[in-house]
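Consider the tokenized backbone below.
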């Protein structure tokens, strides 16, 4: 009769939830977290597609506002799962099923994006509330299993539940209250973690959080790669201005590569450690994520303008790329680089590049110049940081 090794771990259906070690080594994203991210790609892609359609039809104000509101639902659902999983991930049966419920909610949100751009947020709210109530289940499990965090977990569960009831009631409000009441509920959502963790902070892991945010940044940057691919496909399929569309695709690839380089050049966990509670760093990434996704939309709008298939004015088509690039640069500057960075060429280079990108909107080649500006900024960061030690 064989004897199983004493150190072997066996899969069990249920185990009490425990708080993770904040100093745990080699804390990496799990396969379940990666699946969670993959499903959110669908929602991000739908939001980007609808924004592209709105900008191409010159519905700028309505399209941008709808994109920002929809993106909040996508982003906030992802953020809450990510920080919880960093502190309490048990990977047992109930945990996986509640995560599956959140994934289902994200797919419902994705299905409702089109209607939301038509001012009907009913499906979005259904999917969003589904995601959030699944998180209530996770927090109640933590409250029952981790005595030292019971008060914090119960505060989370109570706060999330109250706000979800408010979201459901929000659907019945008159149209004149739509935006002000939406913003009030957004503030309420953002304040729940601040209130819940006021007495005791959960054991989130800064290396793990930085990795998770980096992975989502890759997801939204993928939208730009997709847009550049569309430019090449358009050139091959139609034969319309083949050389011009290939150059546009190359400019898009330069942009996404430069944005990737600039975001990941500075270790995220080191900057995260400088924010006392992590709220500014975590919340500020809304601008990084949404602007990175919008850059891909800008490339597609530029493609429409170059092939004369869209109706956006020339300046709108230019700002569709340059504005999100500028927002991305300023956001990365504030959250990853730091305005007081001791390397002055880098500290000054980011805001200067953002201003130059906006100025490129008024030139005949805004996308190409913006790609050049970001590439030069990459070169400046490489030269200015040469010889510095590389952080682990």
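A designed sequence for it:
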């Amino acid at each position: 009769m064989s004897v199983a090794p004493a150190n072997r771990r066996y899969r069990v259906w249920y185990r009490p939830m425990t708080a993770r070690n904040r100093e745990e080594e080699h804390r990496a994203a799990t396969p379940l977290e990666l699946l969670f991210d993959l499903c959110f790609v669908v929602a991000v892609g739908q939001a980007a597609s609808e924004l592209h359609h709105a900008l191409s039809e010159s519905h700028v104000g309505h399209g941008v506002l709808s994109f920002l509101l929809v993106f909040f639902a996508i982003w906030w659902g992802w953020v809450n799962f990510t920080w919880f999983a960093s502190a309490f991930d048990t990977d047992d049966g109930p945990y996986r099923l509640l995560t599956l419920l959140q994934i289902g909610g994200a797919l419902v949100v994705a299905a409702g994006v089109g209607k939301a751009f038509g001012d009907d947020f009913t499906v979005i709210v259904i999917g969003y509330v589904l995601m959030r109530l699944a998180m209530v289940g996770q927090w109640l499990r933590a409250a029952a299993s981790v005595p030292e965090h019971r008060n914090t977990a119960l505060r989370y569960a109570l706060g999330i539940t109250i706000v979800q009831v408010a979201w459901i009631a929000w659907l019945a409000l008159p149209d004149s209250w739509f935006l002000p009441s939406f913003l009030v509920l957004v503030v309420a959502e953002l304040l729940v973690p601040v209130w819940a963790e006021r007495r005791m902070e959960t054991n989130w892991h800064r290396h793990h959080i930085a990795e998770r945010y980096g992975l989502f940044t890759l997801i939204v940057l993928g939208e730009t790669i997709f847009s550049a691919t569309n430019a090449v496909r358009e050139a091959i399929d139609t034969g319309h201005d083949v050389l011009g569309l290939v150059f546009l695709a190359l400019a898009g690839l330069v942009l996404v590569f430069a944005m990737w380089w600039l975001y990941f050049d500075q270790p995220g966990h080191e900057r995260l450690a400088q924010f006392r509670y992590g709220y500014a760093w975590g919340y500020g990434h809304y601008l990084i994520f949404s602007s990175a996704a919008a850059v891909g939309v800008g490339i597609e709008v530029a493609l429409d303008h170059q092939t004369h298939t869209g109706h956006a004015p020339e300046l709108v088509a230019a700002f569709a790329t340059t504005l999100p690039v500028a927002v991305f640069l300023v956001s990365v500057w504030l959250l990853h680089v730091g305005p007081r960075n001791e390397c002055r060429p880098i500290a000054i280079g980011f805001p200067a590049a953002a201003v130059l990108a906006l100025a490129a909107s008024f030139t005949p080649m805004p996308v190409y110049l913006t790609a050049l500006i970001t590439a030069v900024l990459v070169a400046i960061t490489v030269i200015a940081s040469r010889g510095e030690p590389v952080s682990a």
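The two ends are 46 Å apart (CA to CA).
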